[in-house]
Every structure is written in C-alpha cells, then in structure tokens.
Specification:
Layout lengths: L1 H26 L2 H10 L8 E3 L18 H9 L5 E3 H20 L10 H19 L8 H41 L9 H18 L15 H7 L1
Helix pairs in contact: 3-4, 4-5, 5-6, 6-7
Protein name: Lipoprotein
Keywords: Membrane, Transmembrane, Transmembrane helix
C-alpha cells in the first residue's frame, strides 16, 4: 500500500512539473517579447542625428582642384557624416583622421601652396579629426559630446572649402582686371591711383553682378575720363 502511494505521488509530481514547464513556455510569447524590446528606450549613442551640411567648393571652381585627390576623397567620405548615430560616427572616425593626415601632407595645387592662412585651416581640420578619433577610446563617452565634436569637424572642413572659394574668386577678379585693361589698350603701370581705382571699381561691380557663374570674357570698359585721355596724349 505504501509503495503504491509513493509511486502515485511521484507520477502526480511529474505531471505537475510538466504542466508548470508548459505554462512557462507558453507565457514566453515572442511577439510580446519583441514589443517589450521596442518599448525600451534606445541607448543615446544609437540614436540617429542629422548634422549640418558641409560648405562646398563652387561648381565653376571644380576644375581648379580636380587633381587634388586627397581633398576630393574627404569630400566624398564626409557623405557618411550627413546623418547617423554616434556609434556610426565613431566607427568612421579613425579613417577620417587618416584621410585628414593625407590632406595635410599632400602636395597642394600651386595656388594654395605655402599660404599660412590656408595651411592653418587644414591643420585645424586635422586637429578636430584627432579629437573625434580619441573619443573612440573613452568608455563613458556621451552622445552629446560626439555630436558636438562632429559638428566642429564638419565646420572645420567647411572653412577649408570657403577659403578655396575666396582664393579662386580673387584669382578670377584679378584675371578680369588684367583682361579688360589689356583689351582697351591701357598700360596699367602708367595709370594714376584714381584712374586705376576707377577701373578696378568698374570691373568689381560687373564681376559681382556676374556672380562668378560664367567664365571671364573680354569686355570693354566705359569711356575714360577726358582728363585721362589728355594725359595720355
């Protein structure tokens, strides 16, 4: 009798155990688990952030930097920094630092070579990429800090492109003056300061109105002052 009771108890215990396991399995609904995961707040470093656009070199100046592959490589690479999470930014930081170093050490086009103001902008950009890359080794780095440093890095590269536009605009303006003065047969070395300033101002106004959108063309200047004509005679 005792043995029978013991066996019966063990069977009941076994069935109870199987029932308990079945209930636990059924309670683990995959859909519910997925919903719970989606409800949890995402880590801040994985939140996608949209960054400021990088200032571009003007289209009509592209031919002047066409052979500067280090600059063009960075322009293309920064496309990854338009929109992304801090994780994604940091995963590209080391490569960006390497590209910035290549730009810093590259052979620049003659027009930009040995210009302290231009070199300073390149150095600033390189230093900003170093700071961004250093953040990859900080375990407790915050998304806000990554976002801020990313913006500073993009601004630094925008400053390089802005300087390129300034240098090339000045070059175009100087070429326009030389073309027009030569075209009307004036010797600019013999013009007094007032006459030269008048010619320069006229060219500048037309140059700004054109907006550097078209190639510089030969154009005759307004008739010169009669006093200037007399001086030349």
């Amino acid at each position: 009798m005792f043995i029978f009771t013991k066996i019966n108890f063990l069977n009941i215990l076994k069935y109870f155990y199987l029932l308990l396991v079945s209930i636990l399995i059924l309670s683990c609904d995959p859909k519910q688990e997925k919903e719970n995961r989606e409800d949890r707040p995402k880590p801040l470093l994985s939140i996608v952030h949209e960054y400021s656009s990088v200032k571009k070199v003007k289209p009509n100046f592209k031919q002047d930097i066409e052979g500067w592959k280090e600059l063009r490589t960075i322009e293309n690479f920064l496309g990854r920094f338009k929109k992304g999470s801090s994780y994604e930014i940091l995963s590209n930081a080391e490569e960006l630092k390497s590209l910035a170093k290549n730009l810093k050490d590259s052979i620049k086009p003659t027009l930009f070579n040995k210009k302290p103001s231009f070199d300073a902008r390149v150095n600033i950009f390189y230093n900003e990429t170093l700071r961004l890359a250093d953040m990859t080794s900080i375990p407790a780095i915050k998304a806000e800090e990554v976002n801020k440093q990313t913006e500073k890095t993009l601004d630094a590269f925008s400053a390089i492109n802005a300087k390129i536009n300034t240098i090339l605009s000045k070059k175009r303006f100087e070429e326009a003056i030389d073309v027009d003065v030569t075209f009307i047969g004036l010797d600019s070395t013999k013009m007094d300061s007032v006459s030269r300033r008048s010619v320069d101002e006229n060219i500048r106004n037309r140059f700004e109105e054109n907006g550097l959108k078209n190639d510089v063309k030969k154009k005759s200047l307004p008739k010169l002052d009669k006093n200037l004509k007399k001086k030349r005679q």
